[in-house]
Amino acid sequence: MRRFLLLAWVLAGLVAGGLALLLGAGPAAAWLWSAAALPVAVHVAIGLVRSLAGGRIGVDAVALAAILAAVALDEAAAAAVIGLMVAGGEALEAWAEGRATGALTALMARAPRRTARIDGEAISEIDVADIRPRDLLLVRPGETVPADGTLEDDAATLDESALTGEPLPATFRRHAALRSGGVNAGAAFRMRATQDAAASTYAAILRLTQEAAAARAPLARMADRWALGFVGATAVLAGGAWALSGDPVRALAVLVVATPCPLILAAPVALVAGIGRAARRGIVVKGGGALERLARIRTVLFDKTGTLTPGQPRLAAIDADPALGRDGALRLAAALAQASTHPVSAALVAAAVARGIDPPLPQDAAEVAGGGVMGRVDASTLMLGSEGFLHAAGIDPRNGFGLVAQVAVAAGSIAWLAMDGRIAAAFVMSDGLRPDAPRAVRRLRALGVRRIALVTGDRAAAAQAVGRALRLDQVFADQSPADKIALVRAEAAAAPTAMVGDGVNDAPALAAADVGIAMGAAGTAAAAEAGDVVLLVDRVDRAAEAIAIARRSRRVALQAIGIGMGLSGVAMVAAALGFLTPLAGAVLQEGIDVLAILHALTALRPGAEERLGADLPPQAGIEERRAEHAGLRQLAESLRSAGEAIDADDAAPHLAEIVARLRDDLLPHQRAEERALYPEAAARLGGQDPMAPLIRMHAEIEAQVERLAALLRLAEGESWHVAAPELRRTLFSLEALLRLHLGIEEEMLADLR
Question: In which band, very low, low, confident or very high, does the pLDDT at 68 lie, cut at 50, 70 and 90?
């Protein structure tokens, strides 16, 4: 606020002095201009003393010398103009580099403040600070574990995604070690505190974040990097002009045109323009310093859960008893899952609804905390839950389902379904990649980022699968918050490093990195406060876009500085030779400043490296086509199911129904894309024929549909078992082609809207 008041003071004094001059009061005008300029000189002098105390000199030394010399030599108007340039630059810089206040407030707010302590038969509410080792605590549903301890009940289900990055809730058994910061995702449970709250895991995360933020040195202004050489050159030129001419006014003229306002103003303007450009893309950059650091990034580290993956469990695969079938198994599981609030249960219900399955209501349903749910559906006794849950009932989940169990090691976890005392199905749950994650990695590579790695608290198998899919340079799994900080600092020692994350466990690493990029749309407020850049749009590819915007802004800033200082250099020589008076030099310098600033403002325009998306007209129908993809993926699943059941008695009518759906749903969808969507998309994507691969895949899909229909006709007229192998191959081929086509199409059109 002080800098803005200073600017207002200079403007008022400059205007007042001009009015006084127009009214014929020359001495009063000089006094008013001097009064406007001298507070700026005092302000600059204080900053210069602080810079010298810190062992560096700033370009403001030239501005200070110019103001004082102008006042001393009765060039008050020139002094006021210089003061305006300096105060304007200070105010703009304060706005550009002002950072959000209240950092870590949200992180502290998430920490538990009250908890329930059990004393005999009584339960009392106490402050978390009053927890002592051996206290018996009650953690109710939705509450945060207040301190580290051990579980005193049979089971507990905790959402520890804020601590480990693991998206799926974890089940703990009696006497298991519990960490503070986890959220109770099941029924209430008792725990025995082993430490007080101040010594627990969550408190350590708070301290790590604060220490990491404090350890990072502030960025010096871009202008100060050339300060010493520029100040020295100016002093030599001004002193030489005075010595050769014997006129101190000529030295003053050199100082006036040497006032480095292109350095002071142009760079902040370009950076502010970049910040505004980023804001319009849903990217909040906390100041010009953060933007400048972002432009230098050469290494990017990603968190996994909530950053490269959605962070929500989803149904990845089903292995079911052939007599029951996948859809039949999902119907029963979803029916029973309706009686549970567990995230896996919600994912099963959502998967059933997406497939058009209407699950019935269960009877006598009961949920066992940390295990699963049991009940009756269609007169059958069902159990749905973890391996340990079924083991406790005397059922071996892996009997006949070993393949799925092996897949689950990499894919995620398994929810088992038992019917009337025997295993009926296994549901593999996983946390797949975000659709925009591959594009984010490729765009970072195109921008010249040399190293991209994954840093997560999740299991090694799950992390390696993500790293493989995205072709990352390295994967670091099972990382605690402290491990992440050490890793970020090691990477930052080798190259400028950015950390991208969304959770509380990422906040310390975000603070420790050269640039912390927080997923603010769906991430935690703690990460958003700790980061230098916040992505308000829930898309990880905006991280690459932020780097592209930062690089363009920095390049424009350097160009503006080059233009301004180059012209200033010419003006300095002219002033040294006596061709410019101090006031004329000040006015000329203002013109140079305006030219430099106008060029700096070109950072408001998107550069080619940003490769931004474009709006499509409504008649292109991109949203309608995207909405239809969910149904087409279900159709692909039906193709696989039909191929696996090709020898069943009812295979022919089922296959005829699938062929009808292909002709009624898939082929019209493709024709609509080629008629309206693809031409508009091609015009915006550029290139010779960007949609050609997709159209070629359309043609192959149509050929496979016709082949399938022809084979079905032959099979119905001839022996079914003779045609069955070829039908199976065609169904599997069409399924793979359709899934591949949908994925490629979504990725190509992801930036269009």
Answer: confident
Instruction: Give the C-alpha separation, 492 to 500, whole Å.
Output: 14
Do the beta carbons of residue 100 and residue 275 sit within 8 Å? Answer: no
DSSP 601: G
Rounded distance between C-alpha atoms, residue 70 and residue 440, angstroms: 54
Q: Is the dihedral of CA 24, 30, 35, 37 positive or negative?
A: positive
| Angle subtended by helix axes 651-661 and 720-748, to nearest 10 | 30
How much of the chain exceeds pLDDT 90, in percent? 17
CA of residue 722 relative to chain centroid, distance? 54
The set of catalytic residues is 303
Candidates 3.40.630.30, 1.10.443.10, 1.20.120.520, 3.30.70.20; CATH matching 618-748: 1.20.120.520
Burial of 54 (0-12, 13-18, 19+ CB in 10 A): exposed
Two tokens, residue 283: 């990217």
Task: Tell me the percentage of the chain whose pLDDT exceeds 70.
Answer: 84
Q: What is the mean pLDDT of residues 639-660?
A: 85
Q: φ and ψ at 515, to 5 degrees?
A: -135, 125
CATH code of the region 114-213: 2.70.150.10
- Residue with token string 């002094």: 79
Report the alpha-carbon distance of residue 435 to residue 443 in Å, rounded. Answer: 14
Q: In what order do the strands lie in the sheet with 136-139?
A: 122-127, 114-119, 136-139, 189-193, 149-151, 177-178
Angle at 337 between CA 335 and CA 339, to 5 degrees: 95
Which runs of E-coded beta strand occur in 240-332? Answer: 283-285, 299-302, 314-320
- Whether residue 458 contacts residue 164, with contact meaning beta carbons closer than 8 Å, is answered with yes
Closest CA to 601 of 611, 609, 612, 593: 593
Q: What is the pTM of this model?
A: 0.65
DSSP 520-531: TTTS-HHHHHH-
Report the C-alpha gap between 745 and 739 in whole angstroms.
Answer: 10
- CATH fold, domain 314-430, is Calcium-transporting ATPase, cytoplasmic domain N (3.40.1110)
Which residue type is seen at 353? Answer: V
For the chain, the structural domain boundaries read: 114-213, 314-430, 618-748
Tokens (6 digits) for 325 = 């079938």
Separation in Å, CA 556 to CA 96, 271, 559, 566: 16, 9, 5, 15
First to last CA, the chain: 41
Mean pLDDT of 154-180: 75
Pairing of β 515-519 and β 497-501: parallel
Sheet (strand 372-377) strand order? 314-320, 422-430, 413-419, 380-385, 372-377, 363-368
The Cα 536–Cα 204 span in angstroms is: 28
**DSSP code string of 414-483:** EEEEEETTEEEEEEEEE-PPPTTHHHHHHHHHHTT--EEEEE-SS-HHHHHHHHHHHT-SEEE-S--HHH
Q: CB-based burial of residue 18 (10 Å sphere; 0-12 exposed, 13-18 middle, 19+ buried)?
A: middle
Closest CA to 347 of 431, 453, 231, 461: 431
Can you tell me the distance from the alpha carbon of 532 to that of 477, in angstroms, rounded to the nearest whole number?
24
User: For residues 534 and 552, is the Cβ–Cβ distance under 8 A?
Assistant: no
Contact 404, 426 (CB under 8 A): yes
Which carries the bigger pLDDT value, residue 503 or residue 249?
A: 249
Question: Are the C-beta atoms of residues 281 and 106 closer than 8 Å to each other?
Answer: no
| Neighbour count for residue 276 (Cβ, 10 Å) | 15
CA angle 618, 624, 630 (to 5 degrees): 160
Task: Report the relative pairing of strands 189-193 and 451-455 from DSSP bridges.
Answer: unpaired
